[in-house]
Amino acid sequence: MPMRIQSRWRAHKQWLPVALWMGLIFVMSSDFGSGAHTSAILEPLILWIKPNASPEEIERVHFLVRMSAHLSEYAVLALLLLRAIKLSLRPTARRWSWQRAAVALLIAATYAATDEWHQSFVPSRTADLNDVLIDSSGALIGLMLVFFWCKLTSLGWFFPTRTPPQVGGIGKDRS
Fold it and tell me: Are the C-beta atoms of 157 and 80 separated by less than 8 Å?
């Protein structure tokens, strides 16, 4: 691979997971991810688990699963964005940066808004401002989990930080 292509690949490869995840969200925002298609999968599963489930119970579980999907897919997006932003900038010793988190949240919320706009063109889907708020909340929850992870543990972003072993007593009198 020529040097120029190789250096561009190194500079942009941390954004590949972000692009792939955004692509998955885009696909799920099409007819494929509509309520009719997800209920065709969930309803038999719910009835297998609880054969006497009422239509109201099935609808409630369907709603909860869909809202959980919104929250979790945007939490993952925010984490991938935060990782890509951190790896794109000059390395710093700081594990957490409010500025990087704010940029990740802004990008995720903007993508949530454009995702709902995309859904307005899909006949089996509807655009809803509440979904943008739920998606943005999911991104915020994901970022707050990273914040607490960084504050409550001695780990770095997604891997442990390595500290050099302490060598005690070299050159000191041990008497």
Answer: no
Backbone torsions φ then ψ of 156, nearest 5 degrees: -80, -145
What would the DSSP string read from start to end of 7-27?
A: HHHHHHGGGHHHHHHHHHHHH
**Non-local CB neighbours of 26 within 8 Å, separated by 6+ positions:** 115, 118
The one-digit pLDDT tens for each residue of the chain (175 residues) are 555 555 566 667 889 999 999 999 888 887 655 556 666 777 888 888 888 888 888 888 878 888 888 899 999 999 999 989 888 876 665 667 888 899 999 999 999 999 889 887 877 777 788 889 999 999 999 999 988 887 776 555 454 445 555 555 555 554 4
Computed from CA positions of residues 154, 157, 158, 164, in that sequence, does the dihedral angle turn out positive or negative? negative
Where do runs of H (alpha helix) occur along 29-175?
A: 35-49, 55-88, 98-119, 129-152
Residue pair 25/115 in contact (Cβ under 8 Å)? The answer is yes
Name the phi and psi angles at 116, rounded to 5.
-65, -35
Minimal CA–CA distance to 73: which of 5, 2, 139, 147? 139
CB atoms under 10 Å from CB of 164, counted, come to 5
